């Protein structure tokens, strides 16, 4: 288990699936965590279970800049500083470009891209206050959950794939613009067993369990990823053990991207 003792970390989308597992794991690693999302009830439950000393929930709509400003201010007011952020909130939409309208674009790009953009704009100046920028000193980490969808033309996923690809470019820009004080890193999950994955199975002509079993046979490690798989690697990327990883994307897909294209 990585040592994140005393670190203050914001996790957006921290009340479900991958984000929730990250919040739980970062707390186990000794961090103080702000879970930010649009799920008030789940947020309250998490705080009750893990304790208000370790977790604080902030209702945040990451697509709304004002809401992101409040998230950052509340984190500083509750825990005194921000060491790192894990931008993980995301939404999914099914369709080809011909299926979408402007509202769909706003929803998916708003959460998946604008949400990360506003979080970078407002959280990075706070993180930079704690980083000296001196040679060999510890840097803050701006971690973003991307997706293998940034690299694959998934059928009927045009908007989602485009949103995740945009994040890869943003990560590279953050790494160069904030060099010395911030490391910007992407974590790219393959197929992870979360409520979002279950939602993508709706409308198919087989039960979810059957669809999962079929997918598992296609993944080289022969199982779906679990949220904790991502959380453990995220903790490593937020720790000093990964201090030379910067401006790049770490893929966690059980070997899916290594498959030949036939
Ligand atoms: N599950 C997978 O197979 C998979 C694969 C690749 C990438 N991802 C990415 O991982 C991340 C987490 O997904 P998940 O599978 O855990 O899904 P999930 O649906 O379980 O969790 C999504 C989280 O985002 C939050 N959220 C949604 N809209 C928001 C908004 N406007 N403001 C703030 N929070 C908001 C939700 O409240 C929830 O906590 C997403 O970015 C997703 O794109 C998931």
What small molecules are bound in this structure? nicotinamide-adenine-dinucleotide
Highest-level CATH class of the largest domain = Alpha Beta
The fourth-level CATH homologous superfamily of the largest domain is: NAD(P)-binding Rossmann-like Domain
Helix % is 40-55%
Rounded mean pLDDT is: 97
The count of helical stretches stands at 8
What is the H-and-E element order?
EHEHEHEHEHEHHHE
CATH topology of the largest domain: Rossmann fold
Give the count of structural domains: 2
| Second CATH tier, the architecture of the largest domain | 3-Layer(aba) Sandwich
Describe the structure in your own words.
This protein is of the alpha/beta class. It has two domains: 8-190 and 226-253, Rossmann fold (3-Layer(aba) Sandwich); 193-224, no CATH class. It has helices at 17-28, 40-50, 65-79, 102-129, 158-177, 195-200, 208-218, 227-238; strands at residues 8-12, 32-37, 55-59, 84-87, 140-145, 182-189, 248-252. Strands 3-2-1-4-5-6-7 form a seven-stranded parallel sheet, with helices on both faces. Helix 2 (40-50) links the parallel strand 2 and strand 3 (55-59). Helix 1 crosses helix 8 and helix 4 runs parallel beside helix 5 (158-177). Bound molecules: nicotinamide-adenine-dinucleotide (NAD). Residues 12-13, 15-19, 37-39, 60-63, 88-91, 111, 145, 147, 189, 191-192, 194-197 line the site of nicotinamide-adenine-dinucleotide (NAD).
């Amino acid at each position: 288990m990585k040592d994140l003792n005393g670190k203050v970390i914001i996790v957006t989308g921290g009340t479900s699936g991958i984000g929730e597992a990250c919040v739980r794991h970062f707390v186990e690693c000794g961090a103080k965590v702000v879970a930010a999302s649009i799920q008030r009830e789940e947020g309250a439950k998490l705080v009750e279970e893990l304790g208000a000393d370790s977790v604080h929930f902030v209702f945040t709509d990451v697509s709304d800049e004002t809401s992101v400003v409040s998230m950052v201010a509340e984190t500083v007011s509750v825990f005194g500083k921000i060491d790192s952020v894990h931008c993980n909130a995301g939404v999914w939409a099914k369709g080809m470009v011909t299926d979408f309208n402007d509202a769909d674009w706003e929803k998916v790009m708003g959460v998946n891209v604008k949400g990360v953009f506003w979080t970078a704009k407002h959280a990075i100046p706070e993180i930079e206050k704690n980083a000296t920028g001196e040679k060999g000193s510890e840097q803050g980490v701006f971690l973003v959950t991307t997706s293998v969808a940034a690299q694959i033309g998934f059928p009927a996923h045009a908007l989602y794939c485009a949103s995740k690809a945009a994040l890869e470019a943003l990560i590279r820009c953050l790494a160069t613009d904030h060099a010395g004080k911030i490391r910007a890193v992407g974590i790219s999950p393959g197929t992870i067993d979360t409520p979002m994955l279950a939602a993508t199975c709706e409308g198919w002509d087989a039960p979810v369990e059957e669809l999962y079993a079929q997918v598992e046979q296609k993944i080289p490690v022969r199982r779906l990823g679990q949220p904790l798989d991502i959380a453990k690697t995220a903790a490593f990327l937020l720790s000093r053990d990964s201090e030379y990883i910067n401006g790049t994307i770490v893929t966690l897909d059980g070997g899916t991207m290594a498959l030949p294209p036939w």
